[in-house]
Amino acid sequence: MSKYFYFFIIMLHLLITPSLHTKQSNDSDTNCTHLNTIADTNQFIISTLYGDFTVIEPVLIELFNSSTMERIKHVRQYGAEDYVIKQIKEYTRYEHCVGVWALLRMYGASLEEQVAGLLHDTSHTVFSHVGDVLFKHKSMLFSYQDTIHQWYLQHQNIDSLLADYNIPFDAICNHHKHSMLEQNLPDICADRLEYNLHAGILTNMLTADDIKIILNDLMYHEGCWFFVTKESAKKLALVSLFNTEFVWASPAAQYITQCIADALERALSIKLLTHDDIHFSTDDIVWNTLLTSDDPIIVQSIDNIMNHTQDNRITTYQKKQPLIQKKFRGLDPLIKEENELKRLTDIDNKYKKEYNRVKTLVEQSL
What we know:
Blueprint: H1 3-16, E1 34-37, E2 44-48, E3 51-55, H2 58-64, H3 67-71, H4 93-106, H5 111-119, H6 130-134, H7 144-147, H8 149-155, H9 158-163, H10 169-173, H11 190-202, H12 208-217, E4 218-221, E5 224-227, H13 230-248, H14 251-269, H15 275-280, H16 283-291, H17 296-306, H18 313-320, E6 334-337, E7 340-343, H19 344-347, H20 349-364
Antiparallel strand pairs: 1-2, 2-3, 4-5, 6-7
């Protein structure tokens, strides 16, 4: 099918689909992040999935209005998949970063940790985790964007901005120093909590009321996230297993990510795109550049993405090439019972069985 047909479809989609960050909130819209300006220019209200928050700190106001945050409004959380596997609502890196910041604020994080959370994913390339494949990043402990985070923020002059407010740049760059923001799997942290809650909305596994209950039952104390009820812990944990199997580590996600990485690698080799485009541009700009290319390798890669469910293309790809690395993102939350912290898998055998099934499924495909 002609690449111009694909280009027409994408442009039509962009014209008729409102940008997420410009939508107005309403009772039925549970996935909306936007700024509500108020009379005082030294503060604003930001509406998130987790409630409305008044921002008065000058450093946060400047960051929210920065080009760094503006860019990730146009970088999709699930990368190129969003062009062919439509979510019920758009979910961007901006939505995620602001959501992480909101959760940190809710749970009483320091201003430094809030800044780290707000910025933690701003260094993602176009199409998010495609950078891991494109630049042959192999670590399962951290992503490609983690390795370039300091460089990226310096390039955006965030180091100078933070210096004006006496916030240590090194601490912001190493967000793993902040235990409320980041912890190792299978534990919960603000980052992991946010993308699972959002995934629950996108897959219709959670409602807005479910999220309120989950957050009410989730505590943070002395570096530890834990639930006070098994029911809320399990509700969130099941979201992590379902999305690991059918969204984040699915064959379709792998295939599409590899295809867009192939297209980007080719575009770099023929100088259709530059490394700056990969690191500092946005999804739609780069996607449309690829879509209008006449290069046969790029054309084939885009065709593979657009028609990934046809002709057993995913199965054929899996047989011919080693799969890109999957990551098991299953949660095994801590639950406080009788003043003792226990893993969900230690007190719920049914969940333990499902947890181990999905973990084995992911690990066997590596």
